[in-house]
Amino acid sequence: MSVILKTERQIDGLRRAGHLVAEIYELLRQDIGPGVTTLELDRIAEEFILARGAEPIYKGYTPPGHGRARQRIPFPASICVAVNEVICHGIPSAHTRLRDGDIVGIDIGVLLDGWVGDSCVTFPIGKVDSRGRELLETAKQCLELGIAACGPGRYLGDIGFAIQGLAEPRGFSVVRDYVGHGVGRLLHEEPGVSHVGASGTGLLLKPGMVFTIEPMINEGVADTVTLSDGWTVRTKDGKRSAQFEHMVAITDSGYEVLSAL
Q1: Domain containing 121: what range?
Q2: Pick from 110, 2, 114, 135: which is nearest to 47 by CA?
Q3: Pairing status of strand 233-235 against strand 224-226
Q4: CATH number of the domain bearing residue 107
Q5: How many other CB atoms sit within 10 Å of the CB of residue 73?
Q6: Other beta carbons less than 10 A from residue 22's beta carbon
Q7: Handedness of CA 242, 187, 79, 27 (dihedral sign)
Q8: Is 126 among the domain residues?
Q9: Which residues pair with 180 in a beta bridge?
Q10: Could you give the maximum distance between any two Cα atoms of the chain, in Å?
Q11: Which residues contact 171 (CB under 8 A, 6 or more apart)?
Q12: Does residue 2 lie within any of the structural domains?
């Protein structure tokens, strides 16, 4: 599949979907804290998505083959929840109650008027230890540096180079098994966006490209393990992971973040 360049009108549709996702995070901030279950967060997000006339695109989703092969089981919830050592694709549960000191990544995808919105934020729960706070800050800065490496005439490798160059000197690792992706009418389009790389290599960035940048930064090793539910991905060594994600459009003059208010 080739990269689909988006028109200004199409980018506007993606922008509106991205803004809806950003609104959901503002809503969830009011409820995330010690004692809340991850299933409660899923319910809050789903109700808001449906009330706004959108669809929770993750619910019932079957992956097209991104990341490592896993069972083709439809995802059962509206959001993905990654607590502590879970990297991505965690399934909300009434039995998973957030505790003081946890970190929790919330990944949200919507379909609004036929266009995808997709983003991820990792939240600290209560008082997080210093290394956990450093992990969160590094993951957020990795996303910011990856975005800043975008623009017409730049390369996909520039994004991974910027992210890897920040995370690894701080003693963290960058997950290789799961990458960013193009977005449009479908949740997963070309190109795949690696979060490691060499500057000046890979696909040339052109105006009209829209993709996610979503570095997953681990406290320990980069290796991943998929659990028996066919979805939940955790760190191989059981150490924590943090992720931040935005949708980015390449413009004539640089870039635009589509999933921020």
Answers
A1: 8-257
A2: 110
A3: antiparallel
A4: 3.90.230.10
A5: 11
A6: 18
A7: positive
A8: yes
A9: 193
A10: 48
A11: none
A12: no
User: Pairing between strand 241-243 and 180-182?
Assistant: unpaired
Reading the block at residue 102, the tokens are 């946890």
- Which of 228, 236, 238, 176 minimizes the C-alpha distance to 70? 228
Digitized pLDDT (tens) for each residue of the chain, 261 residues in all:
599 999 999 999 999 999 999 999 999 999 999 999 999 999 999 999 999 999 999 999 987 654 444 456 899 999 999 999 999 999 999 999 999 999 999 999 999 999 999 999 999 999 999 999 999 999 999 999 999 999 999 999 999 999 999 999 999 999 999 999 999 999 999 999 999 999 999 999 999 999 999 999 999 999 999 999 999 999 999 999 999 999 999 999 999 999 998
Task: Give the separation between CA 48 and CA 144, rounded to whole angstroms.
Answer: 28
Find out whether 208 and 162 touch, Cβ atoms under 8 Å.
Answer: no
Residue 61, CA distances (Å) to 65, 141, 249, 261 in order = 12, 30, 24, 26
CA 248/CA 183 separation, integer angstroms: 9
